[in-house]
Amino acid sequence: MKLSTSFLAALILAFSSSSIAQNHTSLDAHAHGVAKLAIALEKNNKISIDLEMPGDSAVGFEHAPKTPAEIAAKKNAEDTFKEKFSELITFPENAKCVWGNPKIEVNDEAKGHSDWDVQIVTVCQMALEGQSVSVNFGKYFASIDKLEVSVIGQDFQKKVTLKKGSGSLSLTR
Ligand SMILES: [Zn+2]
Question: Is the pLDDT of residue 9 over 90?
Answer without folding.
Answer: no
